[in-house]
Automatic annotation (TrEMBL):
Pathway: Secondary metabolite biosynthesis; terpenoid biosynthesis. Keywords: Heme, Iron, Membrane, Metal-binding, Monooxygenase, Oxidoreductase, Transmembrane, Transmembrane helix. GO terms for molecular function: heme binding; iron ion binding; monooxygenase activity; oxidoreductase activity, acting on paired donors, with incorporation or reduction of molecular oxygen. It comes from Lentinula raphanica. Belongs to the cytochrome P450 family. Its cofactor is heme. This is Cytochrome P450. Heme binds at residue 453. The keyword Disulfide bond does not apply. SUPFAM superfamilies: Cytochrome P450.
Length: 517
């Protein structure tokens, strides 16, 4: 046989046996999985599983339907794999609070996110996560966030003035697409409060170099090629170069350089006087991080390297920018649907709680075989009752953030109503909700446990500042029929118009100046 033919055949032989091995392992896992016992919806497609139903889903409609039919704990198929779904609060406590036994899916953490945010807090687990979190926590404390309030208010007033200048003569209402404006506002806020950097997104149509670099990286990372997906699924292939094209490489280099400059400037200020050049105390997250890194409470070997701190710049952008603007968009939408709440909020400027979460669900993977206890037992396909779920290392679980926030079992019959006053009236929230392991407000919007959102106070104060300024100034109404507004779920669920899906996420409102009678 010709040597080349022989080598080719043996390569194909090796690949073939590897493929067969993977297939056999997959089939073995699937047929012997303890999850097979759990009830759940039928599988409509061998390849896609139930993923299409969930992606076409308006918010949590499909999930709620499943829970009504199969109970709060069930199993569905996400492409080729089974996925455990549970709204059971005992189970959710176990999953979220058992430190690092349940982690982000490896492909998301080590591959997709790492490409975007480097080695920042979002991709760390276990010891490295614990260390970073310890240095970073003080930067997000109550007092530190309070000091940022004037930035939040300042940028809110900036947006208010832009909108006010668009209102027509004699206060005739103007149609404004609020999502893009809110996104620019939260970008300016995270730039200033995060790293003392001006993105100038509200003022200019041309993005600054940080925003430009960051959006190129995000866009490229969302446009996955077949090779990217293969590399994410089959770790061995990551030994080969990824398909990063020159634009993305350039953007990543630019991002690093800007991060390094920002860190250098921060260190300059702090080492000179402990203050910023203009004499005010530096209070942005980056300065707070550098200061915390120098604190005597942190042993020398636990401090953060410059690289780690630079990685937090893009981490804060990913984690804090669109999350906050999307939540604000839904909050204003909710207030056009219940005008009496908008009016009441305007009148009293009560501290309106914002429950609208932009996350439908968050995945976690079991790092070891485990038994998850349940408060509500389930009956398996053979009629046997179980007070817990056996999971195997590698099983994926969907933590249903939105569905738990809207569960009638937990919140009562009015769970799905936008009703901020439930937090104000005594007995307004049922005691059952105290079992939800959320870091804030008995909802999972900011998750709970080791990976709970570190920036939740930051974003709450920012959102309250903006609503305070806007609701006092404007009256808002939806500019399209309410049935036109649908929610498009990807990682964050965002509003879209049914008739204009090609325009992506948007929310047009009518606004006019509020004139007291
Ligand atoms: C309404 C706005 C926000 C929402 C709904 C939100 C929600 C969340 C959620 C659900 C997680 C957990 C993700 C996971 O573990 O899979 C998270 C993590 C995180 N958030 Fe937020 N967030 C918001 C705003 C912010 C802001 C403004 C910042 C920063 C300034 C921020 C920084 C982070 C960081 C760094 C993490 C990673 C924490 C860790 O893994 O230890 N977030 N956020
Ligand atoms: C944190 O402290 C270590 C040790 O003192 C130092 O080498 C490192 O550069 C510091 N990192 C930052 C971002 O300041
Ligand atoms: C109980 C609760 O907080 N319900 C809220 C869940 O989220 C929706 C919007 O996403 C709000 O309208 C509900 O008030």
């Amino acid at each position: 046989m010709h040597p080349i033919l022989r080598i080719t055949l043996s390569i194909f032989g090796t690949l073939g046996s590897y493929g067969l091995f993977l297939l056999a392992r997959y089939l073995y896992r699937e047929t012997t999985s303890p999850l097979n016992k759990l009830p759940g919806p039928p599988n409509p497609s061998w390849i896609h599983g139930n993923s299409k139903e969930l992606q076409d889903d308006e918010l949590d409609v499909t999930q709620t339907k499943w829970v009504e039919e199969y109970g709060p704990t069930l199993v569905f198929r996400w492409f080729l794999r089974k996925r455990l779904y549970t709204q059971d609060t005992k189970a959710l406590n176990h999953i979220l609070m058992s430190s690092y036994n349940y982690q982000k899916p490896e492909a998301l953490r080590k591959w997709h996110l790492r490409n975007v945010v480097g080695s920042g807090l979002l991709v760390q687990e276990e010891d490295e996560h614990r260390l970073q979190r310890k240095v970073m926590n003080p930067a997000f404390g109550i007092a530190q966030i309070r000091e940022m309030t004037d930035i939040f208010v300042d940028e809110s007033i900036h947006l208010r003035d832009i909108w006010a200048s668009q209102v027509g003569p004699a206060n005739s209402p103007v149609r404004v697409e609020i999502r893009s404006w809110l996104s620019r506002m939260t970008l300016d806020v995270i730039g200033r409060a995060g790293f003392n950097y001006r993105c100038n997104a509200l003022d200019s149509t041309e993005p600054d170099e940080l925003t430009k670099a960051f959006s190129i990286i995000c866009e490229m990372s969302n446009r996955l090629t077949f090779w990217d997906i293969l590399q994410a699924v089959v770790p061995v292939l990551r030994l080969f170069p990824s398909t990063s094209n020159s634009a993305k490489k350039e953007a990543q280099a630019a991002m690093k350089r800007i991060g390094r400059d920002l860190l250098w400037q921060t260190k300059e200020y702090l080492s000179a006087t402990g203050e910023k050049a203009d004499g005010r105390r530096a209070k942005d997250l980056l300065s707070l991080l550098v200061r915390s890194n120098m604190s005597k409470d942190i042993p020398e070997q636990q401090r953060m390297t410059d690289e780690d701190v630079i990685a937090q710049v893009s981490t804060f952008l990913v984690a804090g920018h669109e999350t906050t603007s999307t939540t604000l968009t839904w909050a204003l939408f909710a207030m056009t649907q219940k005008k009496e709440i908008q009016i009441k909020l305007r009148k009293e400027l009560l501290q309106g709680d914002i429950a609208c979460t932009p996350f439908a669900g968050i995945p976690r993977v079991a790092m070891k075989d485990d038994f998850i206890p349940l408060s509500t037992a389930y009956t398996d396909r053979n009629g046997k009752v179980h007070n817990g779920i056996q999971v195997r290392k590698g099983d994926t679980i969907s933590v249903p953030v939105l569905a738990v926030n809207r569960s009638k079992e937990l919140w009562g019959e009015d769970a799905r109503d936008f009703k901020p006053e439930r937090w104000l009236i005594p007995g307004g929230i049922p005691t059952a909700v105290s079992t939800i392991p959320g870091v804030w407000g008995n909802v999972l919007s900011f998750l709970g446990g080791a990976h709970a959102c570190i920036g939740y106070r930051f974003s709450l104060v920012e959102m309250k500042a903006l609503l305070f300024v806007l609701i006092r100034t404007f009256e808002f109404d939806l500019a399209v029929p309410a049935e036109e507004v649908v929610s498009k779920s990807s990682i964050l669920h965002r509003p879209q118009l049914k008739s204009e899906p090609e325009k992506g996420s948007q929310l047009p409102l009518w606004m006019k100046l509020y004139v007291p009678l």
